[in-house]
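User: Let's play a game. I give you a shape written as tokens, and you guess the letters that built it. Ready? Here's round one.
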């Protein structure tokens, strides 16, 4: 208690809290900007499409190796030993990558960088909870949740600005600017600590290693699944099989080891299971702003990322501050279940509005949808994570953090790649169905094609006009097929939001907890 009222101790607490929150936001931001700017990176590094896809996978999949066990490592070795070194290494790698041209070295550097990003996010909540007074836990949790909409909205703006103005290298150098600040905050905010020999002697190294490798393996399969056409690829099938076998070995190992690191029994709780289910619904529902809206604007409206960011960037900060404050206020007043209902209702309304899109839609038509999505993301995720953490005893928080990484990494990647596959296949189906009604036997087909081809053209023959007209008609059909495919995507997000409302109705009232109780 003495430390809680000591101003110097409080400042040290906030140093660590700001460090972990900056690190988690940096990770989400770096992943988002690299994904948006992948085509520019392929050009800068001289990579083929397939090489670019592998670069993206190696940059993200290794997060799963270290993320589940970071909380345990910090508990044993202390913050300084676990976090400062990786922060410095992250800075060095981020500086070096833009000067590297060898593909194998690029993959290795991105893989190491990915492991460090997993450490940043994996340890964020545990470090914040260990460092802050309980009355500030909900604030720390809200800023942890904030990394998602920050990356989704500002990431598009930043990626476009970097590649078009100051240079694509800043897709990496932004990390080199922030990571040293994170290291300094860790150094001044944490005290030197002794190794917890008791925990170290009980270490479940086998469980941590098997679990991390299993998550990484399945991430590789998911990230490459859409490109390789899923189960038609021997690589994808092999990865899924290997991940399943490893997970079975993990469960067997945890049932036999004397001190299990993350026994699955932690999940045998009604609100924990429903909380994870709510997060899964959230991840599908949030695809409206993270995937459907930006991809529609790029594919159909033919906008570049910096043009999309012209809307998202200036208004995102105000939206994020307002949505974060709203989410915290709701959790502390009307509690988690009512908060989740409000958030999923925002998702449902935004998805329903998205089902009305047409090929004429551009940035202005998406404004209200984006506002609803940002509020929904903050409110739902904060309410769901608060529900999970307030349900279990604090002693089991480290074990729970391991399974949260499944949701953050594997479930997130699953819904993103599945939606990408869904959009691709629905576009093909709609192109085929529309094409059935536009054939040479369609009344007036030839005259329509000639008219389309002669627009804006002077002195061309009827044959040339017909060829141009066919190209214009094909492009129009493809555009409308994409519109219908994205409408189908918004219907999926609507169903996910409604399913989330059903899940919330099944939750039991969470017990009183410092995380959600207003400080007196």
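Assistant: Ready! My guess for every position:
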């Amino acid at each position: 208690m003495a430390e809680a009222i000591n101003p110097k101790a409080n400042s040290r607490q906030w140093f660590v809290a700001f460090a972990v929150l900056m690190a988690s936001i940096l990770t989400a931001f770096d992943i988002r900007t690299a994904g948006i700017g992948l085509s520019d990176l392929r050009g800068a590094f001289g990579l083929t499409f397939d090489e670019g896809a592998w670069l993206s996978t190696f940059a993200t999949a290794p997060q799963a190796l270290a993320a589940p066990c970071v909380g345990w490592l910090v508990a044993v070795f202390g913050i300084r030993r676990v976090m400062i070194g990786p922060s410095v290494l992250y800075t060095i790698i981020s500086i070096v990558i833009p000067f590297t041209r060898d593909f194998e070295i690029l993959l290795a550097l991105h893989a190491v960088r990915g492991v460090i990003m997993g450490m940043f996010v994996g340890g964020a909540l545990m470090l914040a909870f260990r460092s802050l007074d309980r009355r500030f836990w909900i604030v720390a949790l809200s800023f942890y949740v904030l990394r998602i909409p920050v990356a989704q909205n500002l990431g598009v703006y930043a990626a476009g600005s970097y590649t078009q103005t100051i240079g694509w290298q800043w897709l990496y150098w932004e990390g080199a600017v922030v990571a040293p600040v994170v290291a300094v905050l860790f150094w001044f905010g944490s005290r030197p600590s002794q190794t917890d020999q008791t925990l170290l002697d009980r270490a479940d190294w086998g469980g941590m290693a098997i679990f991390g490798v299993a998550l990484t393996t399945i991430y590789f399969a998911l990230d490459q699944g859409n490109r390789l056409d899923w189960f038609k690829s021997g690589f994808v099938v092999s990865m899924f099989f290997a991940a399943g076998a490893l997970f079975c070995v993990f469960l067997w190992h945890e049932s036999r080891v004397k001190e299990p690191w993350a026994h699955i029994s932690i999940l045998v709780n009604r609100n924990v299971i429903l909380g994870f289910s709510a997060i899964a619904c959230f991840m599908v529902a949030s695809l409206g702003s993270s995937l459907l809206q930006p991809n529609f604007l790029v594919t159909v409206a033919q906008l570049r990322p910096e043009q999309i960011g012209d809307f998202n960037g200036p208004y995102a900060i105000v939206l994020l501050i307002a949505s974060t404050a709203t989410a915290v206020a709701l959790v502390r007043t009307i509690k988690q279940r009512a908060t989740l209902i409000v958030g999923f209702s925002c998702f449902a309304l935004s998805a329903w509005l998205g089902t009305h899109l047409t090929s004429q839609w551009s940035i202005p038509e998406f404004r209200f949808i984006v506002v609803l999505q940002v509020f929904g993301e903050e409110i739902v995720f904060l309410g769901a994570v608060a529900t999970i953490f307030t349900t279990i005893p604090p002693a089991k928080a480290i074990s729970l953090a391991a399974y949260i990484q499944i949701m953050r990494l594997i479930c997130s990647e699953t819904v993103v790649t599945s939606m990408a596959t869904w959009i691709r296949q629905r576009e093909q189906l709609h192109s085929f169905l529309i094409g059935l009604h536009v054939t040479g036997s369609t009344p007036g087909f030839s005259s329509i094609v000639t008219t389309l081809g002669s627009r804006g053209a002077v002195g061309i023959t009827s044959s040339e006009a017909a060829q141009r007209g066919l190209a214009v008609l094909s492009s129009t059909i493809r555009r409308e097929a994409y519109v219908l495919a994205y409408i189908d995507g918004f219907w999926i997000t609507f169903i996910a939001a409604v399913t989330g409302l059903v899940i919330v109705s099944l939750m039991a009232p969470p017990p009183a907890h410092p995380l959600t109780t207003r400080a007196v």
